[in-house]
UniProtKB/TrEMBL annotation:
Keywords: Hydrolase, Protease, Serine protease, Signal, Thylakoid. The keyword Signal applies. SMART domains: PDZ, TSPc. The lineage of its organism: Bacteria, Bacillati, Cyanobacteriota, Cyanophyceae, Nostocales. Residues 106-190 form the PDZ domain. GO terms for cellular component: outer membrane-bounded periplasmic space; plasma membrane-derived thylakoid lumen. It is found in: Cellular thylakoid lumen. This is Carboxyl-terminal-processing protease.
Length: 427
């Protein structure tokens, strides 16, 4: 599957961790006409989409033909009954990223990548092993971020309701609400539980922030990328061009806490740093592999260090993995989240939609990072207490020499510059 910009409309929502391609194909006109008479057509259409596209040809060892017979034997008197059956059907795949969205949920997903949303500003996923709802990362400067929610927090309750057995769709319905209203979360963090009462707000996301930092190795361009939204590439381009006019000695790209987003955005941004080489490859269930490559239009060839942590996921891992494997950058920080699956989102006739895992993605060197993440070249750990202090209470230190991971990044960047920009992993 060649993934191109015009086919990638939606990306990771504020409540799910996904690298998503949206196909332009809807239900055929005949199916649309039949659906108006019977919601059963919607059930079968979703089954057909899984049958054609799902990444695992064994359907995770589920007899998918038997599933079709089971759910087509039922009678459906309204769309809600069809929605319930579709959710049950998809749950059999035991894949938290393959999911059905009713019209309201699908609309929310579309809003999430437009750069503006209403909520508390967290990205969550369902852990594939424990089935717990896990915070991938709070979005910077949002209510959840300011309240102190951290990456890897487990959401135990939402407004007093246990999240056991709850999927991400159900969770977003409870977490979201009108601006000004509050949601109560019970969080499990390591061995302790914490209660949060967070006021919802209208959130406008600016994915890129940048500055020029004075360091012992000269002026360094610091770029923080919060999310791979639709306008991230444009903002990244402006940041690099502006910093180039200031003749910075090198760059530190901060992907810490970046939960991912649009696949085409990660590819576009990789091309701004990389002149040649593979960026990412995808492999579907037939084993067919397609590649996205650099196009010779890098905006700078200056030395680059990327900061990553356990909240760096999905598209963040595509970008950092591409630049690491091509020896264009060194990674500093901690191991990333580990999300190496691609979802395709299909809009359905009644305004609902279905996200289907259609492929795995691999770094240029063929690394499958799903569930494993990317290991940085230079490891610099921060405790939860240190991270909370830095990111919440002393934000002015973030991306300065008082930020331990940034400071190490500057040190490594200096070694690259001394070596004429050729990255060398620290031994």
């Amino acid at each position: 599957m060649v993934i191109t910009k015009n086919r990638l409309v939606l990306g990771a929502t504020a409540v799910t961790l996904s690298t998503i391609a949206v196909t332009s194909l809807g239900i055929h006109s005949q199916g649309q006409a039949l659906f108006k008479e019977s919601p059963k057509e919607l059930v079968d259409e979703v089954w057909q989409i899984i049958q054609r596209q799902y990444v695992d040809g064994t359907f995770n060892k589920v007899d998918w033909q038997a599933v079709r017979q089971q759910y087509l034997r039922k009678s459906y008197s309204n769309p809600q009954e069809a929605y319930k059956s579709i959710r049950e059907m998809l749950k059999k795949l035991d894949d938290p990223y393959t999911r059905f969205m009713d019209p309201e949920e699908f609309k929310n997903m579309q809003v999430d990548t437009s750069g503006e949303l209403t909520g508390i500003g967290i990205t969550i996923s369902q852990d594939e092993k424990t089935k717990q709802l896990v915070v991938i990362a709070p979005i910077e400067d949002t209510p959840a971020f300011k309240a102190g929610v951290l990456a890897k927090d487990v959401i135990v309750q939402i407004n007093g309701k246990s999240t056991k057995g709850m999927d991400t769709n159900q969770a977003v319905s409870l977490i979201r609400g009108e601006a000004g209203t509050s949601v109560n979360l019970l969080i499990q963090r390591s061995s302790e539980r914490k209660k949060f009462s967070i006021k919802r707000a209208k959130i406008e996301i600016h994915p890129v922030r940048y500055s020029q930092q004075k360091t012992p190795i000269g002026n360094v361009g610091y770029i923080r990328l919060n999310q791979f939204s639709a306008n991230a590439g444009k903002e990244m381009q402006s940041a690099i061009k502006n910093l180039e006019t200031k003749q910075v000695t090198g760059y530190i790209l901060d992907l810490r806490g970046n939960p991912g987003g649009l696949l085409f955005s990660s590819v576009d941004i990789a091309r701004m740093w990389l002149n040649n080489g593979t960026i990412v490859s995808t492999k579907d269930r037939q084993g067919e592999q397609e590649r996205e490559t650099a196009n010779g239009k890098a905006l700078t060839n200056k030395a680059l260090v990327i900061l990553v942590d356990k909240g760096s996921a999905s598209a963040s891992e595509i970008l950092s993995g591409a630049l690491q494997d091509n020896k264009r950058a060194l990674l500093v920080g901690t191991q990333t989240f580990g999300k190496g699956l691609v979802q395709s989102v299909r809009p359905l006739e009644d305004g609902s939609g279905v996200a289907v895992t259609i492929a795995k993605y691999f770094t240029p060197n063929g690394r499958d990072i799903n569930k494993h993440g990317i290991v940085p070249d230079v490891k610099v750990d921060l405790t939860d207490a240190q991270r909370k202090e830095l990111w919440l209470n002393e934000r002015e230190k973030l991306g300065t020499l008082q930020d331990p991971q940034f400071a190490k990044g500057v040190e490594i960047l200096g070694k690259q510059i001394a070596g004429r920009g050729v990255p060398r992993a620290e031994k």
